[in-house]
Target: FAD-dependent monooxygenase
Amino acid sequence: MDDVIVVGAGPTGLTTAVELARRGVPVRVLDGLDGPHRGSRGKGMQPRTLELLDQLGVADRLVSLGSFDLPFRHHEADGSVRDEERNADLVGSVVDPTTPWRGSLVIPQWRTEQVLRERLAEEGVDVSYGVRLRSLQQDDEGVDLELDDGSHLRSAWVIGADGGSSTVRRELGVGFLGETHEEVRLLLGDAEIDGLDRDHWHMWAAQGPLVGRGAVFFALCPLPATETWQIQIAHTDPDRHASPELLTELVEALGPRVRVRRVTTASDWRLNVRMVDDYRVGRVLLAGDAAHVHSPAGGMGMNTGIGDAVNLGWKLAAVVHGADPVLLDSYTDERLPVAAHVLGLSGELTGRQVFSRTAEQIRDTRGLGITYRTVPDGPGPVAGDRAPDAPLRDDSTLFLRRRAADWTVLAFGGPTAAPSDLPGGGPVQVLDADALAADGTLREAYGAADGTVVVIRPDGYVWSRVEAAVPA
Ligand SMILES: Cc1cc2nc3c(=O)[nH]c(=O)nc-3n(C[C@H](O)[C@H](O)[C@H](O)COP(=O)(O)OP(=O)(O)OC[C@H]3O[C@@H](n4cnc5c(N)ncnc54)[C@H](O)[C@@H]3O)c2cc1C
Model:
């Protein structure tokens, strides 16, 4: 019997698997596809996701393969163009040492998955492709999985990270409440295209060469560190389907110099806005698109899935290592409201021109404000809040230092002992905050005084905060 089987090797399943494997939990990852996805799908990686993935040691690699600087170029009806910074509110603003990444990174989803697969392989785990789950049944001790070839696997826990049409969710009988919007459709594809500059993310609203061709919005985004572009064409015609020929025809109609060399993927998409009302049934947990789907507007789907994975990974690892499974209840409690918020926000952004988004909506999409707080405000981050970064001596940072252990205890104004009631028995480091701080940023970011002790959870949120702790 395996400890954990993860069904689905998209970004959610891969991140969950890394989180488990790096904590010594034997994990197996299945995917029904013959090999990795080739489509660029979720290409906007939000800064909070980079922070979460930084703890897995892959943020720098992702940043090196993506781009923060890809301004929008709006093509107007009269042939003129208007450029707009993607992270306009950040241009010229002062660097913030508590937040290493502040804008969204453009990177194709297949690349993010590749980096996560490579990280997983470092833990000795390879994805089993061509292995499709057909059904599952659970009892008190474990879960039986029946595969498409009729064979069976058994594991103590199962993660359903198998996307919007999740088999795991269906087998659990968990409802997927919401709506399908037949009228909001996209033709999607990746292609090699000549005749457009790769320094901008090009957009056309319903005008010019598109009028009469059924498209209401057209976006071509050059994918960094590749030769390809992502094509997104919004339309309302249920009889129109993506094919290399149709994508080529529509793209080439944009201008006489625009030529498609090769279409590498072509698919149809229509808007579903749905979510589950529970992420866990016994020994089976849902994560990512299996638990919530919504509009790509604002670029939050993959990011929310990775957020689920990082929230769940350490908790399930702790339970496998002996913690009370009640810890897993906090997974639904914390992540379900985040999904509900994202469904609402992406709904507000759907169909709105990029430039008409408010500054608050843009900030919201970045994920830096996500909190699991259930306690009143304090002088600094309290239980459930994001634990900010800060510079430490020797050119280090708190985020880098946090990688050394699951739990980090920041003691201000003198030493303290590690709390004895942290779940799961993962490694704990107690840091003498004042001795390590490079400057006043750490104290300020945590609103700390002498005697403040902040315990940071393995997923980068505050676990507890105590003022005027008695020195050890
Ligand atoms: C046009 C477009 C643009 C987008 N842009 C963004 C963006 O900018 N930012 C963002 O965050 N998100 C974006 N998204 C959303 C993002 O692509 C998804 O949210 C993301 O793929 C969800 O990841 P996941 O791992 O949960 O599921 P998936 O990526 O769907 O992975 C699920 C995996 O499970 C496997 N599977 C399914 N059933 C079975 C089974 N029975 N047995 C075994 N394996 C199975 C599948 O083969 C698949 O590999 C966009 C989506 C689209 C379509």
